[in-house]
Every structure is written in C-alpha cells, then in structure tokens.
Amino acid sequence: SKLTNLGHLEMTWRSRVHFHPLLVRILHKSRLRYYGKPEKKMDMPYQAYFEVADGSGMMSMVLWNSLCPEWYHSMKVGTVLLLAKYAIKTSYPFKTHPTPGDSQMKRFATIEISLNVRDPPTEISIIPEEMVKPEWGLPEVKYRFITRSELDDLPHNYSCDVIGLVTFVGRAERARKREHSEDFWLYRWAHAIDGTSDQPFILELFATSQPDVFERIHPMTYLVCTQMRVIQGLTESPSRTVYLTTSNESQIFITGWHKGQPYTKDAKVKNFIQWTKSQSEADQIKKTVIGGYYPFPRPPDSFLKY
Fold this sequence. Notes:
By secondary structure, the chain is mainly β. About 10% of the residues lie in helices and about 30% in strands. Strands 1, 2, 3, 4, 5, 6, 7 and 8 form an eight-stranded mixed β-sheet that branches. The protein has a five-stranded mixed barrel with strand order 9-11-12-14-13.
C-alpha cells in the first residue's frame, strides 16, 4: 500500500486530515503513566510514549487510554509497527527525551503521532522480525553501553546502558514523590560487576513498568539496564561515589529475559559474556549479598567530618 515517512509527515501534516500508513521501528519506550484523578470519570487514564524511527528520522508516538493495556507489553524496543488511521498533534513541550544511541539521527520534535481508540480509531499491526525487509530502510536499535572502568570519567547526567553480574540487591524502599503527598516511588539499590574494575556499578533502580523483572533481581543474575543517568558529585568528600539512576525511558532485563533483545548483538555485551565464562560461579556466590538497609551516599566515619 502507499506509505508515508516521518520526514514527509512533518512537512505536510498541517494541510492534511488523513495520513498514509507508516512503517516504523520502536527505539525507546517510556514507563506507563497513570493520570487518573478522583473527580474525572475516565475508564482507562493511561498514557505511554515511544520514540519511533524510519529511514528519515525519529519522532515521538503516544499510546492513549484503553490502547495501553492492550498494546503496551507487545510494543518492545526493536518492534516494527505498521500504523494506519493515526492522528498528528503538536508535541507536548515538557516531556522527557531519551538520548538516541545514534547521534546522527534526525529528530522531528515539533509533532508527535497520537494513537487513540477513536477519533480516529488507530489500526496497529506488529510486523514479525523475520518478515522485515532490508529495503524498508528501518534503522537498527543502537545502544551506548559503558564498562565500569569508563564510568568515573563520564559527566553528570550522561545517558548510558550497562550490563553486569549482580553481587548485591537491596530491599525495595519507598520515597515520597512530593512532600506531604500520598504517592510514592518504589526503588531498590543494586551492585553489578563487569570485570573491568574493582568497583561495582552502584544502581538506583526505580520500579519501571516491568514489575515481573523488578521483583526478581537476584545476585548472580546478568542485569542489563538501558537509558541510565550518571549521578556525579554528591559530596565533597574524597570517597565521592558515582552511581547510576533510572530515567523515564529505562528498561531492565535479567537472566531469562535477554533472548531476542537487540542489545545481544552489541560488542560490549559480547565481551561481558566472554568474561563471565572465565569466572568461577562458586567464588562469585561467596561475595554476594541480598537485602538489608543500604544508606547511600554513605555518611562520613566520624562526627567531625560530618
């Protein structure tokens, strides 16, 4: 059928009401957002956004309301979609943006694709990977994996992906989203090693829209975290520790969830797997810890330094 592309949409969207179908690949996926309020009677007040791309560039795509429970879990990073009867809106200005793995990719930031259950009722089809043709020119998913030895030199707020062997995972903790608010963020601390440094990655993992993975992070699992942010310069003390925290677009994967993920082709992921083959499982298990209270950043040793 007649297809359009994202670049053409950006140039012509104001002069059209109906748009030709789009063929895109999902490069990033946000957590699911619930925006329900007691006074507003909405059946399914959910929203999720994705960054999708074709040969012309990348654009945001927003999934609304009852389409979220129906489609959110099947729309993975790397999935190819055929979209018809979608709407185009001007972009929401305050949304977060993931850092693309391919810095050369053009980003269309003025408009976004809106997928609704009506006005118009969007038609979504998932194209199986084995049916995707090279001539469609869809970009591959690219990552920004770093090793632990590279971490200390990275700037504050740098966006990266990591893989490591979990050596510690703390209990789930809660933090208020705002003072006096009844809403909480759920998070846990984890340590992961990759063999490139004596120090582990210190990871602050907020619960994303993957409860099945979040609850099953255990020592000795291979953990992949994407779109993490580097947090530098917490304290002035010489024992200053760098850590990584999740962003709105972070995805977390553990052993059992890796098969078929696009990052399995990444060179640094392959190097890590080679390193794990050289390790003795019994030795590593002795060094692992689970649960307990993990104060971070650590307080100084004495009151004088405090």
